[in-house]
Amino acid sequence: MARATVIGSGPNGLAAAVALARAGYAVEVLEAAETVGGGVRTGQGPLPGFVFDVCSAVHPSVLTSPFFRAFGIRDRIDWITPEISYAHPLEGGRAAIAWRDIDRTADDLGADARAWYALVRPLTRHLEGVVDFTGHALLRVPDEPITALRYGIRMLEQGSPFARLTLRTEAGAALIAGVVAHANAPMPSLSGAAAGLLLAAHGHAPTGWSYPRGGAQRIADALASDLEAHGGSIRTGEHVRDLRALDWGDPSRGDLLILDTSPRLALTHPDIPSGYARALRAYRYGAGAAKVDFAVEGPIPWANPDVARSPTVHLGGTRDEIWASENAVARGRVSDRPYVLAVQPSVLDETRAPAGRSALWAYIHVPQGSDLDATELITRQVERFAPGFRDRVLASRSVPASAREALNPAEIGGDVFGGEFTMLQALRRPVISPTPWRTPMRGVYLASASTPPGPGVSGTPGWLAARTALRDARLPHELPDLF
Prior knowledge:
alpha/beta
């Protein structure tokens, strides 16, 4: 039986492992940490009874991902689908709310109602086509060309100063700016608009911005259980730093090596061609994330009651403030009023905090490798829209960008996206190729967020890497439905 060794047990590595195990490979996964999951791990917070996700917490792309749909993830774990996908508090107790019901969202936006419909509704109605277009390497013909064209036009609009001409109210402009800022890119930018539009379209889909009850770890555990049920195995505490020291099999007999890691690990392969090595060295990593977990007494005292109902909250004020914050990071600085991506999972998930208490997970973007402790900056931004928050904090835990690589070696300098997210690097991820998952080294494939379609918990990079490997071996490469 041919062997497949997968390095890294993030959702992409596990997706590749599951596909290969079902195709008949003897699969072994090697994970540097003591638990599986990579960016979808969950652990205890700064106080007993508080449960926090290590990296990703809310997962709009999981339930629409072709891989996870084929895998049946909806029926394997308990999903929470909020009525509010994301909230954006403003001064004076006001807030812009992205209800899953797009009509309710548009009604709340008043003068921007028609603009919101025009921007988001066509993409939500054709979300499968948007997911197809954004979910592969760019060098291909999309399944729905008209949807891809519509998405591209809106990307050009929102990724340029013309964005100011579409949503003109303070609430509408802030609502789209908050979701675009997820991309950790200068604003406005095409890459940021591309990511933001995909997320906004998910916000009004039936699956919304769903997340697993009990934490992101449930996703990794479901994949790991399926892998083991198909004969695969996982070894934790195995940090592979040099491929030359790894006995991964014989590629001449069909053995495979799948890297759910930074592409830098491929540079240690003894047979790497010099041109490919140069391309990998040219691949750039982006700004980092400085994260803080807060254990809070009672509910978070948001001035707007609807914000208290939303698991995902974007803090940053107006569009101009958010643009200034993200552009400061691009210039190597951190704003005094940074954009904060916050998640309060305990508003709908009783497993995340003791009764009568709240869990708040939050991060800001910072220059790559920064050792900044973001606790005070984040506390001030939350306090700005939730007066009295500071006095309710029982304990907090800071994870600066400089410490993230120790938690997950793929997060170079604290970059949780697997590489700088620009349009150039969407095309060159990490090299320009219609099949960027395949390397020039026989039997070696890349499967991390550093390959298309890039960041997000979709499992797609791993699945596409496995499918490429199976196609190269002339084996069936469709994931069978287990139901």
